[in-house]
From TrEMBL:
<dbReference type="InterPro" id="IPR050855">
    <property type="entry name" value="NDM-1-like"/>
</dbReference>
<dbReference type="InterPro" id="IPR001279">
    <property type="entry name" value="Metallo-B-lactamas"/>
</dbReference>
<dbReference type="GO" id="GO:0016787">
    <property type="term" value="F:hydrolase activity"/>
</dbReference>
<keyword id="KW-0378">Hydrolase</keyword>
<feature type="domain" description="Metallo-beta-lactamase">
    <location>
        <begin position="23"/>
        <end position="216"/>
    </location>
</feature>
<dbReference type="InterPro" id="IPR036866">
    <property type="entry name" value="RibonucZ/Hydroxyglut_hydro"/>
</dbReference>
<protein>
    <submittedName>
        <fullName>Glyoxylase-like metal-dependent hydrolase (Beta-lactamase superfamily II)</fullName>
    </submittedName>
</protein>
<dbReference type="Pfam" id="PF00753">
    <property type="entry name" value="Lactamase_B"/>
</dbReference>
Length: 238
């Protein structure tokens, strides 16, 4: 069965599956004036899925006013150039990942683990380069659908961010936490600094939210904050 083109997470917040039903997700935030902010753009072939997701919401690429990337990896920034070209929207990413987006090359892998050293030799890690219009900083609140707060969670990449949509109390984790067969950290060989990834993810347990959406995995819409806090507490002893 084909996945739905768009899934409602909260009022005005929609998940757009770009690979499978939830393997890789982008998000559309619809503002009161009908404009759209995209969060992540999937792999290089994802724009067709994103455009279909927008159409299911009655939206067109011309409605997209801003594109925000959680980080500079091919499964999140691979479709950024095409979506920027289609929409004419400026691209925003944390300052520490901006150079990687503009060069079209992923940040380095964590080579303190043998699997990271092997993966670094095998992977390509490149994606279409695209210009960055805005370099984001921790704590910045974007004028998006009532307020989208930037939460720095570096480690998976140097400038990895999570996002908190304040009006609907919806957290988008980026790759700080996956929800694939249960909550888990991203594979260490995909991270620039896996230990930092685990350390900075704990800030997500200190925020206030009711729903949590994952770029890898389905959302949690009930008891989300408690679920995240239980996962983080358990990970301290793992």
């Amino acid at each position: 069965m084909a996945p739905p083109p768009a899934v409602a997470v909260a009022p005005g917040v929609f998940r757009i599956p770009t690979v499978g039903s939830w393997a890789v997700n982008s998000f559309a935030l619809v503002d009161g004036d009908g404009s759209v902010t995209l969060v992540d753009t999937g792999v290089e072939r994802a724009p067709a899925r994103i455009v279909a997701g927008l159409a299911a919401l009655g939206k067109h690429p011309a409605d997209v006013q801003r594109i925000v990337l959680t980080h500079a990896h091919p499964d999140h920034a691979g479709g950024a150039k095409e979506m920027a070209d289609r929409t004419g929207a400026p691209l925003a990413v944390h300052a520490d990942d901006a150079g990687f987006v503009e060069s079209g090359e992923s940040p380095p892998n964590d080579k303190s683990y043998s699997v990271g050293r092997v993966f670094a030799r095998l992977q390509d890690g490149r994606f279409p380069a695209v210009g960055v219009g805005e370099k984001l900083t921790d704590g910045q609140v974007l004028d998006v659908a009532g307020g989208l707060r930037v939460v720095a969670t570096p480690g998976h990449s140097p400038g990895h961010i999570s996002l908190l949509h304040q009006p609907t109390r919806t957290l988008i984790t980026g790759d700080a936490i996956f929800n694939v067969l249960g909550m888990r950290y991203p594979p260490r060989f995909f991270c620039t600094d896996f230990r930092m990834t685990k350390r900075t993810a704990h800030v997500l347990g200190e925020l206030e939210y009711d729903r949590v959406a994952f770029t890898h995995g389905p959302e949690i819409v009930g008891g989300a904050r408690d679920a995240v806090r239980r996962f983080l507490a358990k990970s301290l002893t793992a």
